[in-house]
Amino acid sequence: MSASVIARIAKIVPIAVVTAIGVSACDSPENGAQAAPSATRSAVPAVTAPSTPAGAPSTSPSATPSAPAPTSGAPTAGASAPAAADHRGAATPTAEPTATAKPSAKPTATAAEAAPSGGIGIAFSGLSEGRKVQVGDRVSFSVTWKNNDSSGSRQVAPVVATQQFEGAQCYQMLSMAKGTLERKDASGWKALPSLSQGGGMDYAGTGDDAAFTLAAGESRTVEYRMVLDAGNQPGELAVEADAVVPHSFKTMAKSVVNTAVVDSHRPVVTSVSTPTELVVGKTPTEFSFKVSSPDGPGLLRPVVRLALPTGEGLSGQDVTIEAKVRDEWKSFEVTPDCNGLLGVAPSQLVGVMKGDPVEYTFRVGLNRTADAGPVEIQVGGDSDGHGGAVTTVRPAVRR
To answer: How many CB atoms neighbour CB 166 within 10 A?
Structure first.
């Protein structure tokens, strides 16, 4: 390039700018070097850097870039750090410092487990998980409600009831355990409306007349006793205790204990004969079966019913059930039970027995059938309301 051209360029572009551009290019991160501190890069928005003291060495293109040495004025933990510069000289946002970050979720959860959770706590006593509850026996237990709040008070209506029960005698609509439940108040034992929860929330109001106030840290214990009726079958029964806001259906807390219902008085079917052919509208099927009871034959009654509900299209007029009594056939009224199954009420079958174990002989006829499917007849025993497991009889059917 000629001297005249260089002279013209020098007049247009100041030499300081050319020098600065050269320094910036040398300091670029793309070259793997850290940005050297300078008066030009110190003026980054939102970051205030100390001004260069008088007499400090100036930056020159020949200077070797290096990281600034730590000083007593360097940022401390928790303070904002200067932003780095990209290769264009613009500010690159830096990550927030982590020195003052909150602990991770795991330590927080551990601390929460150690601290009181607050709210209402509920605990059973005398009724443990898996406890066997004998049908017909009185079972006493207590429930404690505690206010775990650190301050203030809470109004609590104590509520206890069993949940839906798989061994309920009547299950077509609601599987409710049958029996009695009492609560001990200041005036003595009070019978509650029902042992079991129903289809709505009415049970939640059974504790309104026994509501109490719990200050922070205070607790109250209430005694209960229950008896399951003989008709309940073995199965898992959940007993639930609730803390309800008085005169409302709002439940603040609940606790559940699962018990096992047992019945040592259940009759057992020991044998069943092969049934004869059933001809619909003509000939009934005949069969015999034996039943043994732990309580002896005195209170034993046979159970005979069709294994289909009246909703299948049959009524008591379509079914005949007879029992052999002293070598003679006796007819009985056929009615639906609480589950809609057509049969003979055990109370009708007095004196239809002989021997020990007891042997019964029945015949069942159908005037018509609802469909072409098989006919199933359930047989079993009932001892003073204690129902045994049934056995199914399946006769050959000719229509």
So the answer is: 15
